[in-house]
Amino acid sequence: MNRGFVVWVTALLLAWNGMALIPTNSSSREVYKQSSPKVRHSDSLPRVTLAARQTTNSASLRRRGAKDIGNIIYSSVSADLWIISDQCQTAQCKGNPSYPLLTYTSPSFHSVNDNQTIFNISFADSTGVSIFDCIVRLVLLKDIYYPKGASGFVAKETVQVDSLAMPNQTLGLVNSTNVNLGPSVSGVFGLGFSRLSQISSLVPEASPFVPALVERGVLDYPLVGLSLTYDTSGTLSFGAIDKSVVPNVSLISWHAVEPFSPLPGQNASTTPLYLDWVIPLDGIVVNGTNLPLHSSFPTITGKNPLGLLDVGFTGISGPYEDVAAIFFQLDTIRQASPGVWAVPGTNVTLQPIDFLIGPTEGDPNLCLSWPIAQIPPDDDGVAWHFGTPFLRTVYTIFSYGVAGKEPPLIGLYPLHNSTTFTGNATILSSAFSSLSATVETTLPPVLLPTPTLVIPSYIFNTSVTPLPTFGQILPIQSDDGNSSYTPLFTRPPDASPGVLLLTNVSALPTIAAPPSVSTVVITDALGATHTSTSTLELIPTRILGLPPGEYTLNSANSLLKLGGLAWTFTIIIALKLCPWT
């Protein structure tokens, strides 16, 4: 029996696994900064690599003219860049590459307030214990659980991502953390909005890395593109869209990012409205059956639930009643614990590389499966969290907006429209071998009762109605005379807020990775032609642990490998055609 999950949406977010491309120009801009004390973060994060070659899933972030910092974790639900220093003595820091405060004096290092500006960041919400916490602690990722955090101080340093350097970039140097970064990982690189930045709230003139690139006009356009795959061939692009993944940019559907009101006590006139890469969802179709979705706060955020694109989440979660409705459409399901279901591993034809968490200990014919139910709901109205399983099915563009002219947008380009797995046997074998033999979960002998759901109080100011504004980046006159980006989207006459049209498709910047195969045609003395092909190795600027000068930059475009094969659940997502598509 064929089984298929389809989610109809009006907007969605981000993920991991690839190579980065950075076109550049030379104008400058200034960012509008107003931070929020609320910080969202996932418990597990994909690994980002900041130099690429075909034989590795990792590379390095480095300080200009000095040593490599190390590999970093890429996050779409945080904004700051922070790395561990050699002053960090917690167990999670030991053995990992660190910023050498004690052993090296960097000429480009600048202290902030004599290193007395304390940096503290916590990940996710540690209030209560949800089923997401339980499955992370007890089932899937036993070494990663709430609460997590990092502390240190704020400083400035020249940070370079291959050929793209940012002098005096404000970052956090961490001397204590309980975040399990993983081998050879040195910190976290955020791609979120400035409102999420802890550092911007401490140092008013500071901007996170990506908004800083936009401020200075370094990028061709204020966007980041991401392609995730089942292997290591994905791409991350800064300022342009990878045309090797998206051959026809006119087929991208564009979705307005959901704005959020200020927190109680915040100034509504100065607090940016955009907080997370969140979009509204329309519905779910399971085996041809339309299932309604439920908003956590319908009278506040509207009848459509909100979905967060979270590169750091290795699964999918949603409201209990919606997730239960999905599984009730399937045969022979078992509820393993409140909000977690097991499905027959032989009858479901969705890609097993995506939706199965792993076989249960009590019955190897049953596997725990995504999505899981989030109990209780989040207090910000975000009902669904879409991680890498969804993000592997689309090419995702995060457009930060143009001040006064264009709001933040998410572009989605479907990479396939079939539920048939197209990966090779090697990918499947590797994925299965990465799983534990069984998941330590004992299925209950009786049906579990429906949990009592307690809806929390809405965290944002309900007296302020957020409306989409046109970008957070305030343009200033730059050195080369360019005062702002030219917007590519316009609002049609009499259109409602957020409805935009891409008016100039050809102006949307694109870029492609350097060729990975070289073809040589030789004509010999007798006139015969001989053709040979060879694979080209992409050489990064530096390899972690090797001295400066060992490698040379081979391209003006920076290459970024996003490593890690995730074993998660994919809901096949089809996009509803929107008025601004």
Rough outline: globular
CATH superfamily: Acid Proteases
Q: Would you tell me the overall average pLDDT? A: 64
Q: Can you tell me the number of structural domains?
A: 1
Helix proportion range = under 10%
In CATH, the topology is named Cathepsin D, subunit A, domain 1
User: Which CATH architecture would you pick?
Assistant: Beta Barrel
Largest sheet: 8 strands, mixed
SS-based structural class? mainly beta
Rg value? 24 Å
List low-confidence stretches: 1-67, 125-146, 332-350, 418-425, 434-439, 443-448, 474-483, 537-581
* Measured distance between first and last alpha carbons: 34 Å
Number of helices: 8
Strand content: 25-35%
Instruction: Give the strand tally.
Output: 36
CATH class: Mainly Beta
InterPro entries: Aspartic_peptidase_A1 (IPR001461), Pepsin-like_dom (IPR034164), PEPTIDASE_A1 (IPR033121), Peptidase_aspartic_dom_sf (IPR021109)
Pfam families: Asp (PF00026)
Domain Peptidase A1: 57-413
Protein name: Peptidase A1 domain-containing protein
